[in-house]
User: Fold these one by one.
Assistant:
Number 1:
Amino acid sequence: MVSFTECFGGLFSKRSTPKQIEPDSAIGGLLQSYPANPVQHPELNPELSKIASNLETIIAFVNPKSGGQKGRIVFERLKNYLNRENIFDLTKGGPKLGIEKHKNKNDLRIIACGGDGTVGWVLSVLDEMKLENQPSVAILPLGTGNDLARTLGWGGGYNNESMEIFIKKVIFGKIVKLDRWSIETNLVYSDQNEIEVKTSSDAKDKLPLNVINNYFSIGADAKIALDFHSAREKNPELFTSQAFNKIEYAKNYSKDLLNRSCKDMLQDITVFECDGISYLDKLKTLNSHSIVFLNIPSYASGKKPWKNEDGFEPQSYSDGKIEIVSFQTADFMLLQIGVHGDHITQAKKIRIKTASPLPMQVDGEPCFLQPSEITIELKNQATMIAASEENALISACIQTTCSYLCCSTNPDTDDEIASETEDEDLFDVF
């Protein structure tokens, strides 16, 4: 493998723009010219041809629906750095066929291009396939929250970064392990020895996901997310803008802040045990409206609910422990200015029992769950690629000296992506 220094060193010397070739296809005239594909045309892009063997071991899964036009643009841009057969549209059969095709490659690296849900989809398929040599997964963030991407150093969204630089980050990134948690639910029924159980025709029997990659929560934040999802399902044509979506989230939050819909939530939780110790009394003392279980530090588009402090081990996404924090509804607004939740504990196994339907969410997927016994414990660890600080620093330096780069930009494409990025950052709810 080519050294990191050799790969990046040449980028800082001034050179003429490399020869360009036309792409196989373009999107509405947005993409008109590209740097030469280093695999198919090594003579036209000698800088990248040095790492052509590494490019052969990278495959990409793109959700073209993510981030508005961004997913489709990324799909086209990747064609100029990877073989066409290494790039897959997730809407055409999902990730399994692509992984199956390339599973025997040494040091296989996967790029998941989409939101946190896209990453979770790829990881779940890898679970099902039970490969002897687990591929490592990098993230090109195209969703709204992108909390896992933020945690691993890939940022909160694709902001028209040079695709050449991104690919090199994938090749030279740090391999890390990510804890993944199974979450199982079993319905609870009334009997002579139990508290009376109430059900609802609107509630679900199962959570939407059975694995936690990012976080799980019960209470107010899940209720706000559920109201938003319900409104979007009724009128999907209205929810086509990131700015509009975040305004709707803000409206739902304001409504819940006034109604305090989860203020009596703890009356409906009969068991809350972490590693065999009950924390129900502590939650009642704090008058919790929401309980959040954090596998990663980033939550709700980059907020940090957990603060490392005395009495607790430093937070880690690979230590086999999950952090549990408590909020009242008003606290979510304060997360914007760096306020943290109330620490409950760190645990390896959690058991919860509810007596009435409650709003819950797993990695941003909300539902109203029937009375259930919920068990959370470590499932496995995924192999991920973290963008190193060294790569991030070099990326920042290169971006500020883009006139010296051996890469191509297109004004129309840049404007398109910059416009969508501004929309995403217009409102940052929670």
Number 2:
Amino acid sequence: EYIDNNMMADNKLTHAAILGKDDGGVWACSEKFPEVTPAEFEALVKAFEDPVANASAGIFIGGTKYFFLGGEAQVVIRGKLGAGGICIRQTEQAILIGIYGEGTAPPECNLIVENLGDYL
């Protein structure tokens, strides 16, 4: 419900997912969301601990590398890939991932993902 009615509702995101914070299990995702490998999930967990220290590694989701743009420890990580990018928001129990493509401005994606994270 959160995927279809909140994250994907206005067609600003190309993919969206909600993962369990403890194990990376997929709670919900959009169609064709790229699979997050255990190694990628572990790297996300480390990036949330100290985004700046992990910036040089980039952000990997489904084998795709996003250039690290910035973040706030324990809250949010943002990345860029060509004309698109990614916003990843951590809550107490979940990790929300929004991926956007050409035609969506980064702040539009950030608002969708971060506002839902604030709500949850």
